[in-house]
């Protein structure tokens, strides 16, 4: 019997509150695709969580990161959903990755980095070029801190350059972004189960 895995989407839109977000839309589409593989999950909009700049697990004084970190630790799959700004991941995405850098100094009860045996993927949206570059930055940073990235671990949508159409306005893209999202979900769930059943050894 296949047991349920847990996924967490860290939505790195610059928008706070209930403002419509293309990054959140794609992140939620990843969760829908993951549900087909017995993966439950939730979305956290990082901009709403009072996350402070820094590279520790807790920057104190009301820092919102420790709550998010607990959700990361409780997850099998982490999705970084980011818009493209100036050809790069958003500032919120970069801050999120910087906070995860603290995990290089944290270990589990076997002495392995805390993010070992967790899977990470990227979901990128924008109306300018840079999707592959953003995936590369996000995936490399996550791998550096111990996450494992599956084959085809990125999904994205890029609209026409220098136009104002966003993913939330573009309508379904089942043959392109949708297909990439389904592949990402299948591979991420498969890898997460493999790592749960056969974790990395202590080095």
UniProtKB/TrEMBL annotation:
Residue ranges annotated for the NADPH-dependent FMN reductase-like domain, each copy included: 7-159
A Pfam family this chain is assigned to: FMN_red
Tree of life domain: Bacteria
Protein name: NAD(P)H-dependent oxidoreductase
Organism whose genome encodes this protein: Sporichthya brevicatena
Classification lineage: Bacteria, Bacillati, Actinomycetota, Actinomycetes, Sporichthyales
